[in-house]
């Protein structure tokens, strides 16, 4: 299938727009790659310090035998469910490296915070900027400059983009991303949302709400809704930065371990020179477009309209929301995963998962096939799914898999796959040294058309994201979960200076009407651009009562943005003199997702004559003390706009 003309045009515009910065970036990558091996160019004291803690045999190998040395950058902590599985990974990686005649060291750790824990609390004001801290921590970890490849252990919202930004500044290194997988399914996402809406109305108390939340978030692994964390994993697959099919294999069990070992073999196959795919060469305009297409086809997180702009900038590539909008007009919606449907990511995986979506997009010419990946077989390998090799399969029974939290059957054996029309077993393209306990299978047709569909029968002919423009600025809206009859809302505005004020108005019964709720002073420069996901339940309640309701904000919502129309990331933000600062209570606002309009229905003369409000002094206390926010004052001062990736390092 030839490349779709719109995909080709968007890619070419990116290439032309980025020619100078990308060229400079690749020159730096090539210069770093051309240097002598680190242990040979460094002073003796430097080398001794770098490898002093290695076991004697490993020390001899890396210095005298000149074997590859893998740097591990990990987001492990045991407070957060998604990162807890990484505890055992370094030992597995080191063991596999030794078996393959190499060494591995934990180069460093990066912080990992959870928006679910900090949602609606002061700590959330650190969340977006934690991405750049993670990038900096990744750079510190790799700055010792003694590594021949990198394995990046991360999974959640800001962690993967931060690791990406950081490692792209070491673009001469081969890099493979290693996820931990989702927790087994608990209380369904729809049931969880129902209890939240009941709590917002006072119909259930704290005990019932806590019980529901604890049944939903109950074990190691990522949350099971298709939010930013799981969108990250979809994008890593689409960019060819994982071992194929790794994203949504549950923690624990032999398959998960074998995939981690295969990541080592994959990195070594590049580091030992079998093919030249350092991460800086791999992440080019085509790879970025592939990630964008996968995001749109699955109705992924709106946060990536910020994060992937920043990731691209780290590779010398400039993208903007027009690029997303033009791709969204031709990329169909192929997946219904909560909040865009009732299925969770485990059901998405069982129905065909990332491999199914990637295959459909490739076959329709909506992704670039001529891209580099961490695998020799290219992006087509990412259309298959992994399973334990037959010799290993009996070692782990279904009961044991469930005990390890996998929660579903392993992918079928070759014989079972053929019986179900999944095609033949594909041999794994192993890294140096051969071996391994994995085989890959063709995915075949959708196993659940209510969850994933082919491009010939999509859920929607267009992607789930729209660009909005008008006298209120530039904004984006996720429409994949919004009912079609709610794509247009025109109603008087209620202007709030923070989410707590909106929640108070809801509880006081002041919003029982058609209303556009405007929450301003929430951009990167104002307070770090926190997610406003706590607003979803009350607004959903109002919509459920028949009112026409919308949210407009210069803040973020969430990867879990749902059925209420929300124009988010408004640029320029109010605290930078943006037009939201001119809005007043009672102004009629028109949000039209179909036409791409976000407009205050105020005459041009009156609008231009209005003075913009200034950020209330009380809100400027974000620069004061509390949960470390004072340490991020320089981030707020230097942050670019949301459409520019909210970058703080440029």
UniProtKB/TrEMBL annotation:
Q: Which Pfam families match?
A: ILV_EDD_C, ILVD_EDD_N
**Which reaction equation describes what this protein catalyses?**
6-phospho-D-gluconate = 2-dehydro-3-deoxy-6-phospho-D-gluconate + H2O
Q: Where is this region: Disordered?
A: 395-460
Entries under Gene3D superfamilies matching the protein: IlvD/EDD C-terminal domain-like (3.50.30.80)
Q: Which UniProt keywords apply?
A: 4Fe-4S, Carbohydrate metabolism, Gluconate utilization, Iron, Iron-sulfur, Lyase, Metal-binding
- Residue ranges of domain Dihydroxy-acid/6-phosphogluconate dehydratase C-terminal in the record: 450-646
What is the role of the protein in this entry? Answer: Catalyzes the dehydration of 6-phospho-D-gluconate to 2-dehydro-3-deoxy-6-phospho-D-gluconate.
* Family statement drawn from the similarity comment of this UniProt entry: Belongs to the IlvD/Edd family.
**UniProt cross-references to PANTHER family, sorted A to Z:** D-XYLONATE DEHYDRATASE, PHOSPHOGLUCONATE DEHYDRATASE
Q: What is this protein called?
A: Phosphogluconate dehydratase
Natural source organism: Ramlibacter lithotrophicus
